[in-house]
Amino acid sequence: MRQAAGFTLLEVLIALTIFAVGVMATLRVLGVAAGGVDELRMRLSAGWVAQNRLAEVRAFDKFPAVGVNEGEAPMAGRQYFWREEIKTTPNPLFRRVDVSVYVAKEDEHALARLSGFAVRPLLQ
Predict the structure, then answer these.
(1) What is the model's pTM?
(2) Degrees (nearest 5) of the Cα angle 17, 18, 21?
(3) Which candidate, 40, 59, 68, 114, has a CA 20 to 30 Å from the CA of 32?
C-alpha cells in the first residue's frame, strides 16, 4: 500500500506556530523602533528650543539678570516648556546660562540641556 505524500496535521500546526512566533517578534521590534524614532525626534526638537533660547539671550544687547526664567516655545508641531537659570561667574563680565527643556512644566526629566555664557556689552 502506498502512503500519500504530504505533511501531517501536527507538522502543519507546528510550522504555523513557529511562523506566528516569528511574525509577533518582528512586529514587536518594529513597534520598539517606531517608539525610539519619536523619542529621538522630541529630543532633537528640544535641543533646538534650548539653542534658540541661548541665542536669544546672546542676541539682546542687555546683560541678563541673575535668576530663573521660564516659558514655552513651539517646535516641530509640539509645545515645549523651557527653564533657564542665569548665574554669576568669577568674571563679572560673564553670566552662565543653563537652559533645560521639558515636554511639560511638571516634568522632572529634561529632554535637552544646554549651557552657555552671555557677555556684558561694551557700551553699558
Answers:
(1) 0.73
(2) 85
(3) 114
